[in-house]
């Protein structure tokens, strides 16, 4: 991608500047993530689960956030929230399934302090493969 | 005593949300014998997240029925969680029963009771019991805890994907040689070594 880089805007004119911008953006994201706090880990869990339920209902999907969103923690106070597998090996029942065929999995780690701090986030979204329509499919 | 349905607070809150605003709904939640305050707080949070309105927790300890009516009607539309029924007399319940019509309101009303409190209500306020109908639930846990077998499976998947053992991961983390990838954070937490993150 190439475009003129103007002051105050993200523009990419070469691979080097793209790398530089990516590094800067990465730094900004890390800073933004470190600044995210929550009232408590329990509150985060409840709100996240309800959010997923509301989105599920809005989409007309059939997921059960109560069953597929899991949490665990260790003695150091890191709390892990997982939905679906961390390594995608194909469709699994604990993915969040979209009516389009896409599936979502993610993990969030919060540190149990007051307020709770966001530590890490990872997500994977798999979009449905659009296969060419076969002649036998047509009616 | 009749067996009531055991439901996680998530499901009860969702039921109340599905009844919609202005549902005039009344429910009884049988609180867990231990961690009463924590369970109430969790239920209030679940309900708030679903209905997007902070429920009012009203402690009726020492209140007369007239006070209770005032608390319920001002305002009449928000969700209210009524607590503090444990020490109430049969006369109090009878008075609530007689005045039940004046307690009606558009917002949801939830009685947060002990098993003994439900028994008192059923015995001394039969009309109120009839009004509440089947909306009596035993509050369960928040749920969502990862089971031991789920943890073991996730560890196996990580080990197979990265071709590393749990011991190797801990060793690398101690030497600060692990990349800052979220999978490794999860790996360490699952091993109980979040201190190395």
Structure, described:
The complex is a heterodimer of chains A (139) and B (197). With 139 residues, chain A is α+β, with helices and mostly antiparallel strands. Chain A is 31% helix and 25% strand. Chain A contains 3 helices and 6 strands. In chain A, strands 1, 2, 3, 4, 5 and 6 form a 6-stranded antiparallel β-sheet that branches. In chain A, a hairpin with a 5-residue loop joins strand 4 (96-97) and strand 5. The longest helix of chain A is centred in the N-terminal third of the chain and has 20 residues, at 15-34. Chain A is globular and about 45 Å long. Chain B contains 10 helices and 6 strands. Chain B has a 6-stranded parallel β-sheet with strand order 1-6-2-5-4-3. In chain B, strand 3 (56-59), helix 3 and strand 4 (80-83) form a beta-alpha-beta unit. Classes of the chains: A alpha+beta (139), B alpha/beta (197). The interface between A and B is medium-sized, with 34 and 35 residues.
Number of helices of chain B: 10
Radius of gyration of chain B, in Å, reads 24 Å
Strands ordered across the widest β-sheet of chain B: 1-6-2-5-4-3
Low-confidence parts of chain B: none
The residue fraction in helices of chain A comes out at 25-40%
Q: What percent of residues of chain B adopt helix (DSSP H or I)?
A: 40-55%
Q: Gap between N and C termini of chain A, in Å?
A: 42 Å
Beta-strand content estimate of chain A: 25-35%
* Silhouette of chain B: elongated
Number of helices of chain A: 3
Strand share of the residues of chain B? 5-15%
How are helices and strands ordered from N to C of chain A? HEHHEEEEE
Largest interface, by Cβ-Cβ below 8 angstroms: which chains and how many residues each? A-B, 34 and 35 residues
Q: In total, how many beta strands of chain A? A: 6
């Amino acid at each position: 991608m190439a475009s003129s880089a103007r002051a105050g805007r993200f523009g990419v004119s070469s691979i080097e500047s793209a790398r530089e911008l990516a590094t800067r953006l990465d730094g900004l994201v890390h800073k933004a993530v470190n600044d995210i706090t929550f009232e408590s880990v329990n509150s985060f869990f409840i709100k996240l689960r309800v959010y997923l339920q509301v989105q599920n209902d809005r989409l007309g999907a059939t997921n059960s956030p109560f069953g597929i969103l899991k949490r665990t923690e260790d003695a150091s106070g890191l709390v892990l929230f997982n939905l679906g597998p961390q390594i995608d090996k194909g469709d699994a029942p604990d993915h969040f399934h979209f009516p389009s065929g896409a599936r979502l999995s993610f993990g969030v780690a919060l540190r149990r302090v007051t307020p709770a701090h966001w530590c890490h986030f990872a997500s994977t979204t798999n979009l449905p493969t659009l296969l060419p329509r076969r002649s036998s499919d047509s009616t | 005593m009749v067996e009531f349905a055991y439901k996680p607070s998530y499901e009860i809150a969702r039921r109340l949300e599905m009844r919609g605003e202005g549902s005039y709904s009344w429910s009884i939640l049988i609180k867990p014998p231990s961690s009463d305050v924590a369970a109430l707080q969790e239920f209030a949070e679940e309900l708030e997240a679903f209905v997007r309105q902070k429920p009012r927790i009203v402690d009726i300890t020492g209140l007369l029925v007239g006070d209770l009516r005032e608390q319920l009607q001002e305002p009449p539309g928000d969700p209210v969680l009524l607590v503090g029924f444990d020490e109430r007399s049969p006369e109090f319940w009878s008075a609530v029963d007689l005045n039940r019509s004046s307690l009606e309101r558009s917002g949801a009303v939830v009685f947060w009771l002990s098993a003994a409190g439900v028994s008192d209500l059923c015995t001394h306020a039969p009309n109120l019991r009839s009004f509440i109908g089947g909306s009596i639930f035993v509050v369960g846990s928040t749920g969502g805890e990862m089971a031991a077998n789920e943890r073991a499976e996730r560890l196996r998947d990580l080990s197979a994907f990265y071709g590393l053992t749990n011991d190797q991961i801990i060793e690398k983390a101690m030497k600060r040689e692990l990349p800052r990838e979220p999978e490794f954070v999860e790996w360490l937490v699952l091993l109980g070594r979040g201190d190395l993150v």
